[in-house]
Amino acid sequence: MKKVRGYTLVEWMIAIVLGLFLLGGLLSLYVISKGVTKTSLGDGELQENARVAMRLLTADLRMAGFWGDFTGTSVSISAGASLSALATIQINGTDCQDAAAVGAFPSGSLVLSVLSVVPVNAAGVKQTGLNCISLPSGYSYAASSDILDLRRAMGSPIADATALNSAKFYVAANHEAIYFFDGSETRPTTAAMPNRQVWEYMRHIYYVAKNSTAPQLRMLSLGDGYSDTVVATGIEKVRILLAVDTTATADGIVDNYVRPETVTQAQWTQNRVLGARIFVLARAKNPDSTYSNTTTYNLGDVAYQPADSYRRLLLQSTIMFNTRGESE
Question: What is the pTM of this model?
């Protein structure tokens, strides 16, 4: 009978070592593959959040100054604007006033700005205005970011046969006048306001709030009160500059991009504010232990350099205002 020879101890040890090397290689490939997949998914989410925020903001900004058929130089009680008895909104006894003490509707001689900005300084302190914002528990304002306050007519004209929503506000406008009213009220007749059309009235207030987990772009929307909702996660900062025609005789050409708070009311009423440049900085939800972020992000007049392991994406867009409201 032929004798069967088994494996020696040395052969077993060599086989084990080779197996360990092979297993280690497979584990390394798995770890690398998992890391690449996680990074790719994180980058995809980062890009999507940034694009959602940018699309939303640019869509609103592009229509800044649209008041339906009203062609007045400004929206104020002294320049063709009027209010119904129910065109008012109160929060804790007062309206949500901007830095110029103007709320949701024109009042007295105050002009209803189509776009106003309340900046948050480098220390994270909100400047004067928009005290109606109630930060969620555990959140604070993002430093060196802007709070955007937009008011305008929106959408397409509403047919007279279409019922209005009692939880919303509307504007009726013709070339000479604009009338703000509650959706529970009767719209003005064409006899009282010839050639008028009706649009939904919009006021959106965008701000960035942050906590220890992730920053958010939030929006207060005017309706039966102000609703506060998260519209995009991972948005770390929003910054805006306005495109202004500063020549002695207006020529419709952008001469400079300036901070919104430096734009005068005369520049608004003379249609010298032609557009905006907006910056949106998005941050990944989770840190990446293999990455060190020391990039300098330039958001117009602000340079921001983090020192952490979060991946970020900066988007920039320049738009011209479509005050004629041809499309939305």
Answer: 0.84
User: What are the phi and psi torsion angles at 203 (to 5°)?
Assistant: -135, 115
pLDDT band at 31 (very low <50, low <70, confident <90, very high): low
How big is the chain by its Cα radius of gyration, in Å? 28
**What does the pLDDT look like over 173-184, one tens digit per residue?**
999 999 999 999
Q: What is the pLDDT of residue 294?
A: 93
Give the whole-angstrom CA distance, residue 51 versus residue 57: 10
- Alpha-carbon gap, residue 132 to 91, rounded angstroms: 7
